[in-house]
Specification:
eight-stranded antiparallel β-sheet; Peptidase C39-like domain-containing protein; 215 residues; 23% strand; Peptidase_C70_AvrRpt2; alpha+beta
């Protein structure tokens, strides 16, 4: 016995789209950029290296510059990113003002900034989520050639951005590119509770990709 279902024409011909990502998430066509992970005795990692941040609060600029190079969207330095994104007069900015930074820091543009905005500027931001994803999701992103940005909030106060560029399946660990503290390998289940001794909370995840005009 056969059963037939009357399907509306607008659904039958594929005119419906369902979006489960945030409204501002960018959708990139897979294949626009792809570098396969390097697999060796240490695990599976992507060929992206984050340089040391040039100023104490420029972790966001260092990561954005590194990803712009990795995704080949542009050749841009930390200084150029900061100059482009920060206002000429930071003292008038309500976020930077009210005594949050010293005058010298304002003059040198040594201020905190949002990583997602910096990644959008260099055309390699996909979307972000709150909290720490499961280990298998991190594996999936690395296998697809996409490093993962992470915001850490220190238990002692303050915040910091790092980049995950690899993992070790057997040890269930991740490879960290920290623009302030350098490279390291961290056990995923314990990270970042004891990271840098003081420990932190993984508050946000920033998914990356080379942007295209495809939706």
């Amino acid at each position: 016995m056969a059963f037939f279902l009357n399907v509306p024409a607008w659904l039958k011909y594929g005119n419906m789209k369902i979006f489960i990502d945030p409204d501002d998430a960018k959708r990139s066509n897979f294949g626009a950029f792809y570098q396969p992970p390097i697999i060796d005795a240490t695990g599976c990692r992507l060929p992206v290296s984050v340089p040391e941040q040039l100023k104490s609060r420029w972790c966001w600029a260092a990561i954005a510059s590194a990803l712009a190079t990795y995704y080949q969207t542009m050749n841009i330095s930390q200084v150029e990113i900061a100059d482009s994104l920060l206002s000429d007069n930071l003292s008038s900015d309500p976020v930077a003002g009210n005594g949050r930074y010293a005058n010298e820091e304002l003059l040198e543009r040594n201020v905190n900034f949002k990583l997602d905005v910096a990644l959008k500027y260099v055309n390699c931001f996909s979307h972000w989520t709150i909290g720490k994803p499961i280990f298998e999701r991190v594996q999936f992103e690395i296998n697809q050639g996409r490093p993962l940005g992470v915001r850490l909030e220190w238990f002692k106060g303050g915040a910091h951005y790092i980049l995950v560029n690899g993992y070790c399946d057997q040890e269930k660990s991740i490879m960290i590119e920290d623009p302030l503290h350098g490279k390291s390998i961290q056990v995923y289940d314990q990270f970042p509770d004891t990271y840098r001794e003081s420990g932190a909370v993984w508050t946000e995840s920033f998914f990356t990709n080379k942007l295209t005009n495809n939706i």
